Request: fold
Amino acid sequence: MFPTVTIADVTNTNVTLPMGRIRKNLRAERPAPKVPQRKILHLLIALLCLLTAGSAFGGVEVRVVNKHLAGGSADEDGATSGDNKEGAETSGILRLDQGNLAMDLNLEPGAEKGKSTAIFQGGPGHFLVVNHEEQFYSVMDDEAIQAMAEELENAMMMLDEKMAGLPPEQRKLLRDSLMGDQKRKAKTKVVNTGEVATKAGFSTRKMEVRRGDELLREVWVVDWSQVPEGEQIKSTLLGLEGFFLKIQKIFDSITAGSLGGAKPFDMGESPFQDLAELNGFPVLTRNYDAGKVVMETRVDSIDESKIPETAFQPPNGYSRRTMSGGR
Reply:
């Protein structure tokens, strides 16, 4: 595991100068020496830089390692992919700066870039997926979300018409199949176990994410204040989570009047869900399935770094394709 507070919220500080007192003092001390206007402007700029320097974010790079500990997802032929075989390790790099996030995940050991990069642009609130193999990218912005919502709305209208003409038994079967596993969509809760230990070089506390009696995740978190650029990481990840929650709410509102209130169009579990309740940065996460640990994600390093602006943009020469059909 590893709305939005942007860089503008932090640096747009209103500074009120006591102009009345300044004018009074200037009148009392006349004649005052003449100061060039350009010099005054330079002094004001320097003052504003000092006032905002403590709040400005710097770039940060987080490197993580994923280890598959049990089983693996099989394809249609029953074969398990290399990345998901038991004991297989992949790495990931998260680069953050000024409310933006670039994620290269499922990397081979030692690689700096994978087959795709996910980018969240915190300012405009856009999510991009960049495909490096085919050199194209897709953008999920307000226009794309609106187009997806219209597609979903049309699909639900067609589904309602089809269900209206079915016998009650078939209608129930179709509804149940579209509902999926409602237990999986039940609300989770975060439990502080009170256990503490040193993980990844940090003093951490153990949290558990549960759904009813089922343990989903074991998460070791460190206080945000102990993490380099912790507040920036926190606000950026919460901004990304808020972005996907907004889309899920739109989908839910469209499907609310169909299928007896079922929510078949699920955005899926976000890797950053429960982040606010965890109240800390996860440095070690273990994912459980039926009581067994199936995946472990640990932070390998967190370093302040100068991230180029190009890290949060699609590479030059890549073509844009329409994003459709969900996350």
Q: What stands out?
A: The helical segments are 7-11, 19-28, 37-53, 142-164, 168-179, 230-255, 275-278. The longest strand covers residues 292-304. The chain has two domains: 7-53, 60-72+83-313.
